[in-house]
Amino acid sequence: xxxxxxxxxxxxxxxxxxxxxxxxxxxxxxxxxxxxxxxxxxxxxxxxxxxxxxxxxxxxxxxxxxxxxxxxxxxxxxxxxxxxxxxxxxxxxxxxxxxxxxxxxxxxxxxxxxxxxxxxxxxxxxxxxxxxxxxxxxxxxxxxxxxxxxxxxxxxxxxxxxxxxxxxxxxxxxxxxxxxxxxxxxxxxxxxxxxxxxxxxxxxxxxxxxxxxxxxxxxxxxxxxxxxxxxxxxxxxxxxxxxxxxxxxxxxxxxxxxxxxxxxxxxxxxxxxxxxxxxxxxxxxxxxxxxxxxxxxxxxxxxxxxxxxxxxxxxxxxxxxxxxxxxxxxxxxxxxxxxxxxxxxxxxxxxxxxxxxxxxxxxxxxxxxxxxxxxxxxxxxxxxxxxxxxxxxxxxxxxxxxxxxxxxxxxxxxxxxxxxxxxxxxxxxxxxxxxxxxxxxxxxxxxxxxxxxxxxxxxxxxxxxxxxxxxxxxxxxxxxxxxxxxxxxxxxxxxxxxxxxxxxxxxxxx
Length: 510
Prior knowledge:
Strand content: 15-25%
InterPro entries: DUF4055
Structural class: alpha+beta
Shape: extended
Pfam families: DUF4055 (PF13264)
Protein name: DUF4055 domain-containing protein
């Protein structure tokens, strides 16, 4: 790769997603960020720059979109994300406790991964490994604390990514990621922004006719460039990826557009309505200000003039600013013919204020309905059936995303096992039993009935009750069996222990 290549350039797929990422990114950063973007609050025709500046700087913004995303993204994490397999090797278990090398548990990492996937429609996970010097032994590796670790890559940092069918399945053959960081100077005070790009690539192998027949094992490159305009890209690190593949795992909540990496965002309509809500809310605020502080008009009154200095240094005349307020007196003197002018206020009518207020409320309802969240306020017009149907919608949408998260995490663990040279495919538990917000969950009662009828084993009964939050996530079946043994007098046999664990037998004995 040439030194003068613009490594920060982006792919066509990336550029197609930029408008959406810019919109939701600005919304997420709140009112201050929204006010800085003129296109989200356009200037009215013939509106002066000063008035527009005032209106934009004082715009009102209620972040309903962020509330919706937070609500949706939190639902699968009421229970801990964890490995299910009891016989998972210890090296894999160690990764669970600190998946990213920064002390974050699998559950904490998955929370961020899921949230950003919902907001951006796609998020990325790279399974990497500590770099080892050539010829390093197992002892050297342990001494260094070398281990696989996960890196979450924001959608906006994945500059370009391409995949191809290799050995009968889709695999990544190229990825370029922005890893720009701030480096502190030697004096410990000054800072410098350093552009860094990581490239992962599997070089194509072509036949004599130039047709690609296969791809070489994966390799990586790391490039850096200083902040000075004349700085060139420098290759600071390169080498093979020993597992031979690019260990990238996308988490997608939108609809992928064909074989490209463009995604149709599931919350695009909600974000668009948030912009419209922002404009309507600001218009309502301005109308209220005009009502509280209406425009004063002088009819039949010649305004006094004052001399002022223009921007170009010349002098001009303009009407004197009229003072208004409780401590001011305005005069409308008669002219030579005995006629006099009059002062009056121009203000919006109550009807216009009500229209604007109703429009703001309507937009908020639309946002929450499209976001598939039942309204917690203003549900008087909704029947119990309607509210429950809305709740079922959010359950089905988030439930589908939770299954996709489970699949993505299991793929990441498969890559982790490859780095550890362990032949295992761990199963990850992600809560896909998204509870309906309105109504009661009769599952525990049904499970108890099945246990009493002998249709469920004690072990399965406990597992199901733990998944539904009736038993804590720390509940362990083996420990509970030991406690039951301790409660029985003497040395209980298997039959006695089974009777103690069976609800009908225990009830009959009583």
